[in-house]
Amino acid sequence: MLEKARIHARSSPFTLSIDMPRARAKREPIGLDELAADMTARMERRERLDLPGPRAIWSQSEIGRRLEVHSTTVGKWEKDPARMLQRTGDETYIVFRGYGYSRSEIERLIRQYGFNWPTAFVEPAESIIEVVEVVQEGWTSGMKPLGHRQVSEASLGGFAPEDLRTRTVEHRTLATGAAQRECRLGTQLLLHTNLRPQDRDPVIVEQDGVQALVIWPLRSPEWAMPYSAATSGKPVLLKPEQLRVVRVAIGDTRIRRTVDGDA
What we know:
The chain has helices at residues 2-10, 33-44, 46-49, 60-67, 71-79, 89-98, 103-113, 119-126, 177-182, and strands spanning 131-136, 147-152, 164-168, 174-175, 188-192, 202-207, 210-215, 222-226, 236-238, 244-252. The chain is α+β, with helices and mostly antiparallel strands and 263 residues long. A seven-stranded mixed sheet has the order 2-1-3-5-10-6-7. A three-stranded antiparallel sheet has the order 4-8-9. β6 (202-207) and β7 (210-215) form a beta hairpin. The protein is globular and about 60 Å long.
């Protein structure tokens, strides 16, 4: 059939074009499936690879021991890395380190998939910026001794350091669904002690002596749940008319500050 078409083309004043089937373009892996497959392959080859020094691959039990979680939890992260998006950057670093990824590989994975940044990656970038100390406090449901945390002066938004506080979003922190989506586990919130909240501000509110994180405004009753069901925190039904504003977030340290525009 193709030969006949060519003969006809020679005896015809018209140009005959034949549409040949195109080679299929190689499809790039979508989402976190590629990462899950690579993590699984690394763990399966752990005994045979026997990589030396910092590239050694740990067992899931060892990773779990370092993070104080069960090895089955590590297995779930391996099969579905999206679960790690809610973990702190330091926890994520330990998991990837346990699977034998180098520092540069971990940084690439964080940039590619949006995991939280480990402290060790963030602090060097912020060290070139002037820093101030802000009081670090805990939650009413699990108070910690007051301490101090260094934050970049540029992040203060013009507010005086003495008017600001910082809190870390923890497993036991109570938060509405919207607040948990906006403020991931491990987020360091920078809070003002006396500021009127605006729409979409993360706000710490108090009801009957219990504090919770919400996205302002809360227009109807909504449940505040702990970030982790494994904690002792109990859900609380927040009622807008009973809430008192405790702190208003003016920023956080979820995003790594860089000089190359990759923030």
